[in-house]
Amino acid sequence: MSDFGQIKVLVPRCICNINESRELYVNSDGFTPLEISWNGGFVTKIKSIDIDELDEVKRILFPRFAEAHAHFDKAFSWNNFPNLRSDYANALSVNLEEHITRTPKKVIKRAKKSMNYAISNGYRAIRTHIDTYLSQDEEIWNEIFNLRKEYSNLLELQFVALAPLEFWSTLNGEILAKKLTQNNGLLGGVLVPPFNKDIHSSLSHLLKLAMKFNLGVDLHVDESSFQPGRGMKLLLKIIDKLNCNIPITCSHSSSILLLKNREIHKIGKRIAERNIKVIALPLTNFWLLNRDQNNNSLQRPVAPVKQLQQSFVDVSIGSDNVQDPWYPFGNFDPFYLMSHAMPMLQLNPWDRLTLSAFLNAPSRLLGLTWDGILSVGCPADFVLVEGNNWGDIFSNSIKRKVLIKGNWYQK
Ligand SMILES: [Zn+2]
């Protein structure tokens, strides 16, 4: 294996940080042609390419991606546990049926399948939630932690223990929290309507436990089409009361969209002030929420990406479920995600903030050492796709090559 090389590629201009004395040429889709050299797994030189050499440049470069929100413990379980009603309530009920059949062997098999797809499709890191119940088999967690070490050269893994909120007030909750501190883990839970009276104290306990062990928290918040923003408001209230400053992520935050724009900006400002990160998950939201079996409604609650970004919230866009009761499609492919999410949310691929949500914000969210901005000294960790405009990426079955630490990845 040689870990040096050179390529001529097009790169989205807004993810380049390079020193060039002349102004860079940028085409109408926002790509700039560059010659990139690497050695020892890191980029050593970046040079602009003259316009008259553009015909030679037939590939587009992206940094390897980071997936902000996955569930690889249940991925590819759709065949045995389909949710043919395709709504949230039935997804939850089929999920519970599936959960009682789980064994460490099944979970590891799904996890490995997910990771192998993810690596060859171009991911370098994944934050995945793992269902955790009061009776959760400890063995599953031990094997999952081992998997993290096994794949560490190819993929960085981060785990969120997705438990009922009250789990974090139990002794088992405290034991698992301690283990998560040693394994790059976070505490997770679900904060959606209907809100019962115990939720306030369970959520306070969860945040206090996270503060005690200095752990991050990632919650499924307001994944719903009613009681808009109520989970987020409750969370903000408790955070203020506890003066809690651990890293907090709000996944989904879907029903916020149903608030008035003025209120969205107001809540966005509070989210930004508390440095809370938001992950929009349009694929599952569009599939599951506000379904009417007889009519099409275009009212789909999904985190208001643009309004939140305008309020300076760091928003990531993630995939969520893959071929399980919550979502029947997908295969851990960042280009599948982008090609669906951009038209759904009317996000232009040539805008900096759009690419930030897919490339840089997830890297920051996962605390990766590289935020995905191309510069001299950055890792030679890239995905190369054949083509020279966004239409080539989103219209065809794409041809890609993955470079990991300066070496071309082979399955
Ligand atoms: Zn999820």
Keywords summarizing the entry:
binds zinc ion; 411 residues; 12 helices; 34% helix; alpha/beta; TIM Barrel; Urease, subunit C, domain 1; 2 domains
Describe this structure in words.
The chain is an alpha/beta fold. It has 2 domains: 5-64 and 371-408, Urease, subunit C, domain 1 (Roll), CATH 2.30.40.10; 65-347, Metal-dependent hydrolases (TIM Barrel, Alpha-Beta Barrel). It has 12 helices and 15 strands. The protein has an 8-stranded parallel β-sheet with strand order 5-6-7-8-9-10-11-12. A 4-stranded antiparallel β-sheet has the order 4-13-14-15, with helices on one face. Helix 2 (104-121) runs parallel beside helix 3 and helix 5 (199-213) packs across helix 6 (230-242). It is globular and about 70 Å long. The mean pLDDT is 94. The structure holds zinc ion. Residues 69, 71, 129, 220, 251, 320 line the site of zinc ion (ZN).
Give a brief description.
With 411 residues, this protein is α/β, with parallel strands linked by helices. It has helices at 88-99, 104-121, 138-150, 171-181, 199-213, 230-242, 261-273, 282-288, 305-310, 334-345, 352-365, 390-395; strands at residues 5-12, 31-39, 42-48, 59-63, 65-70, 123-131, 156-162, 185-191, 216-221, 248-252, 277-280, 315-317, 382-386, 400-404, 407-408. α2 packs parallel to α3 (138-150) and α5 crosses α6.
